[in-house]
């Protein structure tokens, strides 16, 4: 298993399995179980995905030793703040049936993120979380958080795929020793990603699928990936990406696909800030 080393020395698998939008509990449990059987060891969930219990059941059923796993979950906006973050963390841990987390992320850069971060720093120092990080933090917010707190986030999980490559962001994160993690490596298929002519011809050249070419391109850039699928054959396919290397020229060909903007929405858009900042879940 190829790994990256985080800024506190913790090792993180470079490929994991994401469970966003797998709402059905049985489907989520089965998909995570299939992923663990296929060899994935990193699982990425969130309180807001409302499937932490199913993930916990799959982990238990798999029998994979705890120390082999790397489990990530995230704190939603409604639980931002010192006291709320501590309570939300305890709930997530209970739902996952775990006694520690490998990575806990602030899901969105909204609400009292400083209060949340103080709570997370304490939990980190108490050994209840092996590493703490953020998600969807634009570079200005990331630098601000780094400069005015003790612990530098180990990870920033941001939208990263061939149409939104985060080249500048990744350079800055490297400078600050923050690991970039891609969410939406396939942009959920938006902009016809799986049928893009350039990606299809590279897939033919390497005798791989478009999904595998994308995941290999990201991992060759040392970006951690967490593709999601509810289909066992795709779960296996997405994991089998280390038996080929894209040439420098082909990496550059994919680099030319960058649209330098989100395929979803902007975290700077006040309407989005309002929508995400006021969405509440039964957590
Ligand atoms: P994604 O992984 O980019 O795309 C998932 C879509 O691609 C699904 O429709 C899936 O279909 C399809 N797919 C997967 N493998 C395929 C293959 N080999 N061939 C063809 N189609 C394939 O989207 P995502 O789930 O949004 O992102 C991945 C993970 O990132 C999430 O699950 C979550 O853990 C995380 N995430 C985090 C944030 C955040 O704000 N921090 C936001 C979004 C996502 P099937 O399932 O039908 O196979």
CATH level-1 class = Alpha Beta
CATH superfamily: NADP-dependent oxidoreductase domain
- Quickly give the structural class: alpha/beta
Give the total of beta strands.
Answer: 10
Strand count, sense and barrel status of the largest sheet are:
8 strands, parallel
Distinct small-molecule ligands in the complex: NADP nicotinamide-adenine-dinucleotide phosphate
**Order of strands across the widest beta sheet?**
3-4-5-6-7-8-9-10
Question: What does the secondary structure layout of this molecule look like, with pairings?
Answer:
Layout: E1 3-5, E2 11-13, E3 16-18, H1 25-38, E4 42-44, H2 52-62, E5 70-75, H3 82-96, E6 103-106, H4 113-125, E7 132-135, H5 139-147, E8 155-159, H6 167-175, E9 179-183, H7 197-206, H8 210-220, E10 224-225, H9 232-239, H10 248-255, H11 270-278
Parallel strand pairs: 3-4, 4-5, 5-6, 6-7, 7-8, 8-9, 9-10
Antiparallel strand pairs: 1-2
Describe the model.
Helix content is 41%, strand content 13%. The model has no long low-confidence stretch (mean pLDDT 97). Strands 3-4-5-6-7-8-9-10 form an 8-stranded parallel beta sheet. It has a two-stranded antiparallel ribbon with strand order 1-2. The protein starts with a strand and ends in a 5-residue tail after the last helix. Helix 1 links the parallel strand 3 (16-18) and strand 4. It is globular. With 283 residues, the protein is an alpha/beta fold. It has helices at residues 25-38, 52-62, 82-96, 113-125, 139-147, 167-175, 197-206, 210-220, 232-239, 248-255, 270-278; strands at residues 3-5, 11-13, 16-18, 42-44, 70-75, 103-106, 132-135, 155-159, 179-183, 224-225. It contains 11 helices and 10 strands. The longest helix has 15 residues, at 82-96. The chain has one domain: NADP-dependent oxidoreductase domain (TIM Barrel), CATH 3.20.20.100. The chain binds NADP nicotinamide-adenine-dinucleotide phosphate. NADP nicotinamide-adenine-dinucleotide phosphate is lined by residues 18-20, 44, 107, 135-136, 157, 183-189, 194, 209, 211, 226-231, 234, 237-238.
């Amino acid at each position: 298993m190829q790994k990256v080393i985080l800024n506190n020395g913790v090792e993180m698998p470079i490929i994991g399995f994401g469970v966003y939008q797998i709402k059905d509990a049985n489907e989520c449990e089965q998909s995570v179980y299939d992923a663990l059987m296929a060899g994935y060891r990193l699982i990425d969930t969130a309180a807001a995905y409302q499937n932490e219990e199913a993930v916990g059941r799959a982990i238990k059923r798999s029998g994979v030793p705890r120390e082999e796993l790397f489990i990530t979950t995230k704190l939603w906006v409604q639980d931002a703040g010192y006291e709320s973050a501590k309570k939300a963390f305890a709930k997530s841990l209970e739902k996952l049936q775990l006694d520690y987390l490998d990575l806990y992320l602030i899901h969105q850069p909204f609400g009292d993120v400083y209060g949340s971060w103080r709570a997370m720093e304490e939990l980190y120092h108490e050994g209840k979380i092996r590493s703490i990080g953020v998600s969807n933090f634009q570079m200005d917010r990331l630098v601000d958080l780094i400069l005015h707190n003790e612990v530098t986030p180990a990870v920033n999980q941001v939208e990263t795929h061939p149409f939104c490559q985060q080249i500048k962001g990744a350079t800055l994160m490297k400078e600050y020793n923050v690991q970039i993690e891609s969410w939406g490596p396939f942009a959920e298929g938006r902009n016809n990603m799986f049928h893009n002519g350039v990606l299809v011809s590279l897939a033919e050249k390497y005798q791989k699928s478009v999904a595998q070419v994308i995941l290999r391109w990201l991992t060759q850039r040392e970006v951690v990936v967490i593709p999601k699928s509810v289909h066992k054959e795709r779960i296996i396919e997405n994991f089998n990406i280390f038996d080929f290397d894209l040439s420098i020229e082909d990496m550059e060909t994919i680099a030319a696909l960058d649209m330098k903007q989100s395929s979803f929405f902007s975290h700077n858009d006040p309407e989005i800030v309002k929508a995400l900042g006021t969405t509440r879940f039964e957590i």
